[in-house]
């Protein structure tokens, strides 16, 4: 390696999928120079992820692509669990209108379209660059506490190296970065082979506009409409079956027949048939020193609740602002320990929910079918299940340096704050920008205001009649600290305590992002 010139960049992101590009975009917005390396010169063309909830669309809005995403996605009506005769066992409806986070609760899309959108958006940020068509071969400790990333041009074979202060491994299920830091996947004992079928048609299939999960131990299946003319089916493969057995429409007719009655086969165009192995795994460690794992490199979620890609975007949203605070010197490196502490437990909970839905579709043979007809219709009336599946709320983050909750009652702490329209007809997220905010029913004093200003925080006064005021009252609080990723850091009735808890975070210059003046005041209601 002595003959290879070595450059330096604060952050190297390995992998330019949605997670990697999201992390790079957020870092660039905070003025952190970031290099993204990916083995593909262009967007990977095959569709994979197809669903995103409103919490994750909120992250896309933070990246600056919400409007573009609305043009390539369509709201979905939720989830139906049906039996082997396609009789409805339970229905979890999602609101297709704007919800508490500012977007429809469930959104269907084609992943290559999203990735193209994210890559195009990345080029708007002068602090980020992407090199495609390269193979990362190693990540090792270098001098001065840095990490050396070695990569090879896949066309010319020329070897390159770059030293980074931090490395983010967003390189997927077969992550090289995970191996380099000595991490391993813990198998959560779920492994199923599924057939994935994408079909294009202008015909009206006349189906309910949400996801259909067929609970059948003989042949579990999923149906969903992705776009105006794009549809996806997933079928569990039986022993001895492969994707090659279903590589023509004629071989698929028996499987998709319940959804295409009255539609001529000539109106259907088969886009692709592929075999996937659905797994449930989570890395035993998510970081080593300045190297972190994100997305599929850290966790694999079965697709039954559509949270796999979203989990990676949540990783990026959680880590990027903390990393920016460290790089700019506002916070010590030890704050990065909160990333695996918060995200690993959250990801494990979401994997557990996906496993519960997966087993409910496939387990138990005839006895399982009988039990499903008894139990599944009652799932929708159980508050815990309804909150997770119907309302789409994800679990609160566990306690950490940035989730400061009392032992006996968490209240709002660790949950996401709402994203309402304020009095100036801007949404909360747009108004408070990239930093911390104090949402309070009581305006701060001049001294408190000065402290918040010096620490880079903005202030939102929640009026009694506004959505934020109602949110605070529901959480039995009069004020809350909202983090840059919109998680509530702390909440309660002691305004002085909360003002003092607000961390210093002033990662100027902001790149391509409109940011409020620290200490600026907006109102709600």
Description:
The chain has 525 residues and is of the alpha/beta class. It has 3 domains: 6-50 and 110-184 and 284-355, FAD/NAD(P)-binding domain (3-Layer(bba) Sandwich), CATH 3.50.50; 186-280, 2-Layer Sandwich (D-Amino Acid Oxidase, Chain A, domain 2), CATH 3.30.9; 428-524, 3-Layer(aba) Sandwich (Glutaredoxin). It is built from 14 helices and 24 strands. Strands 1, 2, 8, 9, 10, 11, 17 and 18 form an 8-stranded mixed sheet that branches. A hairpin with a 5-residue loop joins strand 22 and strand 23. It is globular and about 75 Å long. It starts with 5 loop residues before the first strand and ends with a strand. The model has no long low-confidence stretch (mean pLDDT 89).
What is the beta-strand fraction? 25-35%
Secondary structure tally: strands: 24
The total tally of domains equals: 3
Main pleated-sheet profile: 8 strands, mixed
CATH topology of the largest domain: FAD/NAD(P)-binding domain
- CATH architectural grouping of the largest domain: 3-Layer(bba) Sandwich
The poorly predicted ranges are: none
How much helix, percentage-wise, in residues? 25-40%
| Category by helix and strand content | alpha/beta
> By CATH's scheme, which homologous superfamily of the largest domain applies?
FAD/NAD(P)-binding domain
For the termini, the CA-CA separation is: 62 Å
CATH classification class of the largest domain = Alpha Beta
Shape: globular
Our Rg estimate from Cα atoms comes to 24 Å
Whole-number mean pLDDT = 89
How many H/I helices?
A: 14
């Amino acid at each position: 390696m002595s003959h290879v010139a070595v450059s330096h960049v604060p952050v190297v992101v390995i992998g330019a999928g949605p997670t990697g590009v999201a992390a790079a975009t957020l870092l660039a917005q905070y003025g952190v120079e970031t290099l993204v390396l990916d083995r593909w010169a262009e967007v990977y063309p095959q569709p994979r992820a197809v669903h995103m909830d409103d919490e994750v669309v909120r992250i896309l809005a933070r990246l600056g692509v919400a409007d573009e995403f609305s043009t390539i996605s369509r709201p979905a009506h939720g989830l139906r669990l049906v039996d082997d005769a396609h009789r409805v066992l339970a229905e979890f409806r999602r609101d297709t209108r704007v919800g508490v986070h500012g977007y429809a609760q469930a959104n269907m899309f084609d992943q290559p379209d999203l990735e193209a959108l994210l890559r195009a958006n990345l080029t708007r940020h002068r602090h980020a660059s992407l090199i495609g068509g390269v193979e990362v071969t190693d990540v090792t400790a270098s001098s001065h506490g840095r990490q050396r990333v070695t990569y090879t041009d896949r066309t010319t074979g020329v070897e390159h190296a770059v030293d980074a202060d931090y490395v983010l491994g967003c390189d997927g299920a077969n992550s090289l970065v995970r191996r380099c830091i000595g991490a391993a996947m813990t198998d959560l004992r779920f492994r199923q082979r599924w057939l994935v079928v994408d079909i294009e048609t202008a015909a009206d299939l006349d189906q309910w506009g949400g996801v259909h999960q067929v609970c059948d131990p003989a042949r579990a299946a999923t149906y969903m409409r992705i776009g105006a003319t794009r549809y996806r089916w997933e079928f569990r493969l039986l022993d001895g079956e492969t994707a090659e057995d279903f590589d023509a429409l004629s071989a698929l007719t028996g499987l998709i027949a319940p959804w295409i009655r009255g539609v001529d086969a000539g109106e259907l165009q088969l886009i692709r048939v592929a075999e996937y192995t659905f797994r449930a795994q989570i890395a035993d460690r998510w970081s080593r020193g300045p190297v972190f794992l994100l997305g599929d490199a850290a966790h694999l979620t079965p697709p039954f609740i559509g949270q796999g890609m979203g989990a990676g975007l949540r990783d990026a949203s959680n880590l990027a602002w903390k990393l920016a605070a460290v790089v700019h010197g506002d916070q010590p490196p030890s704050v990065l320990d909160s990333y695996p502490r918060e995200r690993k437990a959250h990801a494990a909970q979401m994997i557990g929910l996906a496993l519960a839905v997966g087993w409910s579709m496939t387990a138990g043979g005839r006895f399982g079918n009988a039990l499903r007809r008894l139990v599944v219709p009652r799932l929708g009336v159980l508050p815990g299940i309804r909150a997770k599946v119907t309302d789409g709320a994800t679990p609160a983050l566990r306690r950490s340096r940035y989730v400061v909750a009392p032992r006996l009652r968490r209240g709002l702490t660790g949950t996401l704050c709402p994203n309402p329209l304020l009095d100036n007809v801007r949404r909360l997220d747009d108004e408070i920008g990239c930093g911390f905010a104090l949402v309070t029913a009581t305006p701060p004093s001049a001294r408190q205001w000065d402290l918040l200003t010096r620490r880079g925080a903005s202030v939102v006064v929640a009026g009694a009649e506004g959505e934020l005021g109602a949110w605070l009252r529901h959480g039995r609080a009069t004020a809350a600290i909202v983090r840059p990723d919109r998680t509530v850091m702390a909440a309660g009735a002691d305004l002085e305590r909360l003002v003092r808890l607000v961390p210093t975070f002033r990662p100027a210059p902001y790149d391509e992002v409109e940011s409020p003046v620290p200490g600026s005041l907006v109102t709600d209601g």
